[in-house]
Design goal:
Number of strands of chain B: 0
Strand content of chain B: under 5%
Shape of chain B: rod-shaped
Largest sheet of chain B: none
Structural class of chain A: mainly alpha
Shape of chain A: globular
Helix content of chain B: over 70%
Largest sheet of chain A: 2 strands, antiparallel
Oligomer: heterodimer
Number of strands of chain A: 2
Distance between the termini of chain B: 39 Å
Helix content of chain A: 55-70%
Distance between the termini of chain A: 16 Å
Order of helices and strands of chain A: HHHHEEHH
Largest interface: A-B, 36 and 23 residues
Chain lengths: ~180, ~35
């Protein structure tokens, strides 16, 4: 999943309005950031995604993210408890969302699971657009009444949909596009 | 278009991934800040 992860983060902003959106966004993408870091470092595993998207990796990332939040949000003790739960859940939901669109390892020697919607870019776009729209609607309700209909708010939804469309066009033009 | 995407899918794949996730994150955070101003 691509823009759909941001859609989940936007929805989480409604559930935990005190938690900064940037924290939710970064947490929602953390396994992909891990992938990118491993790619650049030249770390390869026999099964791609084992160190970033498998169940044990996700649990490690969730605990790591929660620990970092305790440090980052130390000046805001009223936020820490909810932020810890929120970022850990964001990381776990990344894995669950990717089971819909990709094919991911479970654990070392375990099965690969996923519906691989990326193989059907139109279906992928429809699903991710739905997640983005629902997330944006939830997020919008966290804005003060005036800015809910602002240009920035509308532009946010449009940008996410355009980026998702661009990603799905790429998948359609170059099937099997690799992350790393 | 296809050749560009195929070249990006090669050695630059990890940078393409970083551009994609960093770009979407920055756009989201920036527009949220703007909407709350």
């Amino acid at each position: 999943m691509y823009a759909g992860h941001i859609g989940v983060a936007l929805a989480a902003k409604r559930a935990w309005p005190l938690v900064p959106l940037w924290l939710l966004v970064i947490a929602s993408e953390l396994p992909d950031w891990t992938d990118a870091g491993l790619c650049i470092a030249g770390v390869r595993t026999p099964v791609y995604g084992m160190m970033s998207h498998s169940i044990p990796a996700i649990l490690v990332l969730a605990v790591t993210a929660a620990t970092l939040v305790i440090v980052v949000e130390r000046p805001h003790p009223q936020v820490v408890r909810t932020a810890v739960v929120a970022v850990a859940l964001m990381v776990v939901l990344h894995m669950v969302a990717d089971w819909l669109t990709g094919l991911k390892p479970t654990w070392a020697g375990g099965p690969m699971i996923g519906l691989e919607l990326y193989r059907w870019p139109v279906a992928d776009f429809l699903l991710e657009a739905l997640v983005v729209i629902l997330g944006w609607l939830a997020y919008r309700s966290t804005l003060p009444v005036g800015p809910r209909a602002s240009r920035s708010s509308s532009l946010l939804l449009a940008s996410l949909l355009v980026l998702q469309l661009a990603a799905d066009v790429s998948f359609a033009l170059v099937p099997g596009l690799k992350k790393c | 278009m296809r050749s560009i995407l195929e070249s990006l899918a090669g050695t630059g794949g990890s940078w393409r991934l970083i551009a994609a996730i960093l770009g979407i994150a920055l756009i989201t955070i920036y527009l949220d800040r703007e909407a709350r101003r």
